[in-house]
């Protein structure tokens, strides 16, 4: 993984949620795969990783690819309805899991007295649901959801709003993100950007990141000056078909 110079001094850390603290990205990947299979088309994992992961505006392009591959004339609205059925199947506690190292990183930063925030493009109901489910809500002084901004990532508004609510200049914040859409938003806000790609996006370049780390254990080492644990738990999920192995 690419690393730049050590992280400069900072006053706060702002986290993305989906794909960074919780693995809700793979369930979306599985739902999109199921939609393609339902329509009799071969899924395109790399297209999904490049255009959809972390970018809600990417679904129309994915639907266009589906229509081309399946020879169907279903509208975007019809395909969204079908996709929602698969989301309901996969966006469950059995599939959405906490990212390995998340608690260790959050607890390490909190022990150091670092103010923490969430800046997510997802709706507030979704954000509150999963922060509550995993017992994370009380770890964050500020939570900014997609409902709190008029422009979502890659626009920097969520990061700028989180920094303002923390009372910290964005340039004094570290942003922790998994997707290229998210790192672009954080970079535009002026944050120092730490990318933690998932197995679904690890093969992609992350040009907006100052640091690219393997997982949240390595992020903890980077941000708290602590060595990663000697033995890490296995990844929550196995290899992703159609993408390079992590």
From TrEMBL:
Pfam families: HAD_2 (PF13419)
Single GO term (MF): sugar-phosphatase activity
Protein name: Hydrolase
Organism in which the protein naturally occurs: Streptomyces phaeofaciens
